[in-house]
Amino acid sequence: MNKSYDIVIIGSGPGGYVAAIRAAQLSMKVAVIEKKDLGGICLNWGCIPTKALLRTSEIYDYIKNSSHFGIDISQNKLNIKEIVQRSRDVAKKLSRGIDFLFKKNKIDLIYGSAKLNKNKEIVIKKNNEEKIILAKNIIIATGAGPKKIKISKNYDDLNLWNYIDAMTPKQIPKSLGVIGSGAIGIEFASFYNSLGSNVEVFEMQSEILPSEDFEISNFLRKSLSKKGVKFHLNSSVVDIYQKDTFELHYKNLKSNKDLFCNYEKILVAVGIQGNIDNLGLEFTSVKTKNNQIITYDYGKTDEKNIYAIGDVAGAPWLAHKASHEGIHCVEFIAGLRKDNSEKMTIPSCVYSNPQVATIGLSERKAKQMGFNIKVGKFPLSANGKALSLSESEGFVKIIFEEKTGQILGAHLVGVEVTELINSFSLAMKLEATELDIFSTVFPHPTISESIHESALDAYNKALHI
């Protein structure tokens, strides 16, 4: 007889494994099907190992600039094998942690490829063997994979890098072309630039990180340019040719000129698309659009008792968004949630050097939506802690609704700002206003004081500028 579960989750990434643990906490019988690495792309090939790599480049930057701190280091060497191994070790440790949590919560982990069948049957294949399990509810959390670009040659015949290749290099390339200036492209551009590669970035839009506040994107581009990264904006890739090196043919969309560049490696980072192939969706009423599953409140799809969360359900493609959706989806299934009146504002981070962290509306978007706004900005060059760290590059920018003082958005660039953005997540969740920030005591000396000063600046009350 086929085994039956209250919930079966397809995929063990940050959406799937968190949903599984929450379901187990609610006394549901849970199974998770994973075809490759426990923890999904984020833990194994995304968020976590890339931060380990970026930490290496950060330390290397400190070493190269150690004279600023009165330290003379005459020799510094890079061992790319050990750099990569450390990032893999961090990922493996966290994957083992999820395995422990599954056992602790009595969650069945089944390795194999899952395909939906009729009547809530799920067919699992592994090594030419097949078994069927049954589910009262199914959550699809299969994540997303890298998009490809259109070129004349067979894409797979070219040895182009995707993010996995960029995380596991055998050696540091002398030159690297990066196609795309979203978070993935910019983080790897920053990483390889720090390690000594000549890096050039290609972007179709007029600015990098096109979805971010213009001041943030503009500041980061200028900062990375000073460090040697070259940017080709308003540029569309026409074709790629491979001989001893890669030749990239691109068109400048402003001048309409065809131009050519050569690189040892090319990283394609033009976005991701949902993993929806071979799931058996044709046996269901689940609808898709642009390689993503169409969802409604709490991850509901057009098929009763089938849900989708995380990257496979569309933008924003962020791990913390997937986890949040997973928890809410399971609690809805358990009957703990009925209406979806909750407002969800999702922060995003880019772990370049300097870092970027944002939440809510950009200044331009707020104006387009008709808000009358007040904008405050405080430079880290006026912050004592940032100066003591020799990390005074960047600023904190806050956008308030003029009449109510409501925080519409916050945009930060600088050292460790990814550790500050959660303050705004909480503030916006609690509908805090400028008065709440004014009356909050920020510890000294910390970079967080820039939040206080930025809010004060919006109302012409800044103390240190």
Text of the CATH class of the largest domain: Alpha Beta
Enter the CATH topology name of the largest domain. FAD/NAD(P)-binding domain
| Tally of contiguous helical segments | 13
- Strand residue content: 25-35%
Low-confidence stretches: none
Number of domains: 3
Structural class: alpha/beta
How would you characterize the largest beta sheet? 7 strands, mixed
Number of strands: 23
| First and last CA, distance | 72 Å
The helical percent reads 25-40%
**CATH architectural group of the largest domain:** 3-Layer(bba) Sandwich
What form results from the Cα inertia axes? globular
Q: How confident is the prediction overall: mean pLDDT?
A: 94
Q: What is the CATH homology-level superfamily of the largest domain?
A: FAD/NAD(P)-binding domain
In short:
With 465 residues, the chain is α/β, with parallel strands linked by helices.
Please write out the topology.
Layout: E1 3-10, H1 16-25, E2 30-34, H2 40-45, H3 47-64, H4 80-104, E3 108-111, E4 113-116, E5 121-126, E6 129-140, E7 144-146, H5 163-167, E8 175-179, H6 183-194, E9 198-202, H7 214-226, E10 230-232, E11 235-242, E12 246-252, E13 258-263, E14 265-268, E15 272-274, E16 288-289, E17 292-293, E18 306-308, H8 319-333, E19 348-350, E20 355-360, H9 363-368, E21 373-379, H10 384-388, E22 395-401, E23 407-414, H11 421-429, H12 434-438, H13 449-458
Parallel strand pairs: 1-2, 1-6, 2-3, 6-18, 8-9, 8-14, 9-10
Antiparallel strand pairs: 4-5, 5-6, 7-15, 11-12, 12-13, 16-17, 19-20, 20-23, 21-22, 22-23
Helix pairs in contact: 1-8, 3-4, 3-6
